[in-house]
What does this fold into?
Amino acid sequence: MPRGRSSVPCWSTTAWYGREVIAVDQWFPSSKTCSDCGLLLDRLPLGARGWTCPGCGVTHDRDVNASRTILAAWLAVAACGGGVRPIRRQSVRQSSVKQETPPARVGAPLP
It folds into this structure.
């Protein structure tokens, strides 16, 4: 279940009517993914309201493109199952778990 009080009525209402909520990962690059050809831009500044896809040449409004991309992701999940998560090359953020170093061993190993 999602965190936050504002989403609880949505989840309970959909259960009441026998529907399903599919939550999209918060880091899913919906604004940076072309809704026509699927090309993923490396960078898209937050101030950019529109952009042209270098792959297919279609000009997108940022919000309309994001909604189309999320709809396509929802249709894929509804048809095939699974989750909607971006493919990450490598983690940029540090882990919140403390990393322990293994104890040092000095001397000859025991038989």
